[in-house]
Amino acid sequence: MIPVKFDYLAPTSVEEAISALGQHGDDAKILAGGQSLLPVLRMRLNAPEVVIDLGGISSLRGIRDDGDAIVIGAMTTHHDVRDDHLVKEHALLLSKAAAEVADSQIRHRGTFGGALAHADPAGDLGAPALALGAQFVIAGPGGTRTVEASDFFVDLFETAIGDDEILTEVRIPKHTGWGAHYEKFVRVAHQWPIVAVAATVKGSIDEARIGLTNMGSTPLRATASEQALAGASATEDGVRAAADLAAEGTNPPSDLNGAADYRQHLARVLTGRAVLKAAGV
Amino acid sequence: MTATQDRPAAEIGKDRRRKEDQRLITGRTRWTDNITLPGMLHLAMVRSPFAHATITSIDVEAAKASPNVVAVLSGKDFGDELGVCINAWPITPDQKTPAHSPMPADRVAFAGEVVAVVVARSAAEARDAAELVDVEYEELPAVVGIKKALEDQVLAHPDLGTNKSALWVFDSSEAGTGGDVEAAIAEARTNGIVIEREYRQQRLIPAFMEPRSVVVDPTGEQITMWSATQIPHILRFALAATTGVPESKIRVIAPDVGGGFGGKLQTTPEEWIAWAVARRLSKPVKYTETRSESLLAAHHGRDQVQMLTLAADKDGKVTGFKVHLDADLGAYIAIVGGGVPVLGAFMFNAIYKFPSYRFECQTVLTNTTFTDAYRGAGRPEATYAVERLMDELAAEVGVDPLEIRERNWITHEEFPFTTVAGLEYDSGNYEAATAKAKESFGYDALRAEQKERRERGDRVQLGIGVSTFTEMCGLAPSRVLGSLDYGAGGWEHASVRMLATGKVEIVTGASAHGQGHETAFSQIVADRLGVPFEDVEVLHGDTQIAHKGLDTYGSRSLVVGGEALVRAVDKVIEKAKHLAAHLLEANADDLDYTAGRFSVRGTDQGVTIQELSTAAFAAHNYPEDMEPSLDADATYDPVNFNYPHGTHLCAMEVDTETGAVKMRKYTCCDDIGVIINPLIVAGQVHGGLVQGIAQALWEEAVHDEAGTLVSGSFVDYLLPTSADTISFDVVHTDEPSVCTTNTLGTKGVGEAGTIASTPAVVNAVVDAVRHLGVHDIQMPCTPERVWRAIHANDGDAPTPEAAMPHFEEGALNQDEGAGQ
Ligand SMILES: Cc1cc2nc3c(=O)[nH]c(=O)nc-3n(C[C@H](O)[C@H](O)[C@H](O)COP(=O)(O)OP(=O)(O)OC[C@H]3O[C@@H](n4cnc5c(N)ncnc54)[C@H](O)[C@@H]3O)c2cc1C
């Protein structure tokens, strides 16, 4: 369908983008890869007067090493996140999850920052970012601030990014050498998950970090399972017993793809599988 | 009858790449939406958000004031010139048929119905203004779902007094084609086996790739409509019949059309509205629907509840089959609406020798999108019911599902065979197709693996599903259609035009929308006429060029249209022979016709058909008793349907922990008679399989209680992609059972894969978990449904009941809220 008419701005710097945002306020929308925004515009679920395209800001693209963290520019595509050697080495979980996002065409367009800013609870990148303790660098008229993952996801499609701010980059603390697996459960390929589990483990198992996708209005940590796994040995039975705690404190939706109780069951099963695979069992 | 060629077929049987594909795939062609006419205006529809409501007022002022808006019109702005949407197949004389205006002025009966149309200079401006049309509704209670509709508490159309539209019955004892089914059931209750099941055919959306689009040009004497339709000829007839414009003043063109699957076998409200607006404003107009509109308002398919009673003796020999269907028509009775389930009436007995049979179909009206043909139309539903039940019977008797079928099927020596539904199957060989499929599938090894996994208690269980299907296709003998009160015949027309340069134009009334007619028909003509494949051009889809025809659906194009073509070609050859004899100064009886050349037997004298074509054009020298033309027409009315059949075998893996299912292997051995182009056949089979598999596993159109379509985008209406399917093992019998009622010996293949595959897949899923106490899983077999079925009895998955094997008052074989 045809979107409502809008003006198009293509700033070449973050400052320019922020000042454009400031100028147009509520009437403006940021455009990253457009893979979520354009469907929304085309279905006329939203009708901004101005669209500010971040595509021309080269500083937002790319991945760099920053000591104890790697830093992923907001405009880095899913495809680049998946294939990047720094990501593979220090945050393998992200590479695995990015590989599971949609299909190849969408992975070449959609961006890491766009997906996280969009904050779809069924999106594949929130849970791994949360599990890895990502820090979100947000720029606004007053400068730059950093928000912890646990504070970043506020609700369905809602984050800590203010109306006059943009997400510029995401710092991922290094998890060098951690095993990782993203277990995504779908009905058809190239779709958002019914439930997915992002698991990364150190050793087998010194420490486990587990994120849950689509088990509530934001990405969630499977804290009880993480605690049960810390220091446990990676046996099938042990892991499954810990995974049985994965649905604690979750509040998943009920829809055509599954009722809440089924999703909780899936979370338990998939957590077991994800952890076992991450641990290389 | 004629001097057709005796040279071996060079083209028929050849894997020709489709000559239409380059333009279709690149899109550099004439799709309806690509057509732009001078001064053309664009339409946007205003649709009702309510499933059932009275229209109290429509305020168009703001929309009219919107930039570049030319007009905003609603139902009350039009009189008779708007016409009506027709139902061409009233299935009973007392069928209750609601009046169906393309744009009702007073009351809407489904969410998505058009209440106003905006006309603007661009599509974007029309869309913007459509949002400014302020319609006030008074909501009425909506009836959604078959069971609710049958209660007749809430009425879809209060003026009709009931939701029950028609009851259509066939009984073999009344028809004289078999015995009394009630007696067979009574006998089986005491001495045999009775299986009672309720199956649900969920509602599906045809989801063709090209959205529907229509352009109307009223300039000049004749009004032209381009439409993304399967049925240009029927469309032209219906426009004439309902809008008062003489048929001779109407030209309908279906340019390249991007898929239909029955979904474009319709005369649509949007076409009628575009027609009326163009005439009102005397301007060309275009309307192209959005994908959302397509899912919402283009007709849906299937949607039945089937109550089935199968009676058999203790050995599993079926003695009777009783079928009661309730079929959801939606809000109106679409062009073939109620006829779709009736097409299934003749197929529930499938390939079997059932001695008694009764079929009842109750059609009901609801406040949902109207339903009509979708690939297979009636026959997938029938095949699903009987093939699911044959597996259940096998389980009851304790034998292999293939064994139970063999005990009941028509053996190859018994053809031609008149079935309990009164059809005469001309040819078939179920034994051969089954043997070949079994071998190619590796049946025994997979059964052994299944056993091993069961014994091991493997988390992933393996199931094998069987579907031995047949279908009636090639719609249709006109007299049969007449006896069923269908509104048209089933013949097809073809013309052959021999051009001055020796090239050949063939004109067919079958209107391809992706099937590959241009290639296959060229192959037929190349062989039969003896001209190069490249010299044949196929024309179709324009009522001014292909002036007669009944279009493409029901696997009819090749078997009916192809036969018409053969007959026209034979007439050309006959004429050419006369001319050849004259030019060669020989006796016609002394002429041989080989490889496109007439030669005088025993000499080296001869003339090619292409030279004769030039000679006929020049007309300098031709016999007194002949017109200077080789062109010929033929109209062919089939004497019977044809009956392709096949054995489909499917292996599914079921993850018992999550309910996820995965296809492991799929083999089909289809016997479709003579194959013109194996590559096209493979394409039809692959595509058909995926659509049938998708019904089993993924697709379902769901309305909520208020009648809102919940699965209104491809995020919720799950279409598979290549990533969801496996590479199918497609084989054919070594000695096909040639169709005896057409010259080419061909049978239809367009719907075969869809008809056969759905029960094969569900049978496999059920087979994988039958040992866990599962008898049925409702379609689509979502992981959740499979998981609930497996754990229905162990307290793991408390609600809802996944399977309800026997009839009980109020107990449905379906989830709560799933379209009911
Ligand atoms: C068919 C299809 C299938 C898909 N399947 C999946 C899937 O399986 N898993 C999955 O995770 N995702 C899926 N997606 C979504 C995809 O990952 C998107 O790329 C992603 O959600 C959004 O990223 P984007 O760069 O396209 O952002 P956009 O669509 O451009 O923007 C999304 C939203 O974020 C805002 N935004 C973007 N960047 C910034 C920024 N730097 N600062 C502040 N706000 C910003 C925008 O204003 C907008 O509201 C699918 C999309 C499609 C079309």
From TrEMBL, chain A:
Domain FAD-binding PCMH-type: start-end pairs: 1-177
Cited Pfam families: CO_deh_flav_C, FAD_binding_5
InterPro entries from the UniProt entry: CO_DH_flav_C, CO_DH_flav_C_dom_sf, Diverse_Substr_Oxidored, FAD-bd_PCMH, FAD-bd_PCMH-like_sf, FAD-bd_PCMH_sub1, FAD-bd_PCMH_sub2, Mopterin_DH_FAD-bd
Signal peptide location: none
Keywords: FAD, Flavoprotein, Oxidoreductase
GO molecular function terms attached to this record: FAD binding; oxidoreductase activity
Protein origin, superkingdom: Bacteria
Keyword DNA-binding: no
PROSITE patterns xref list: FAD_PCMH
Keyword Membrane: no
PANTHER family in the cross-refs: XANTHINE DEHYDROGENASE SUBUNIT C-RELATED (PTHR42659:SF2)
Record protein name field: Xanthine dehydrogenase family protein subunit M
TrEMBL record, chain B:
GO molecular function, one term: oxidoreductase activity
UniProt keyword terms in alphabetical order: Membrane, Molybdenum, Oxidoreductase, Transmembrane, Transmembrane helix
Species of provenance: Nocardioides ganghwensis
Composition-biased stretches (Basic and acidic residues): 8-21
Positions of the Aldehyde oxidase/xanthine dehydrogenase a/b hammerhead domain: 26-141
Keyword Membrane applies: yes
Designated name of the protein: Xanthine dehydrogenase family protein molybdopterin-binding subunit
Record region (Disordered): 1-21
Record-annotated membrane-spanning stretches: 329-352
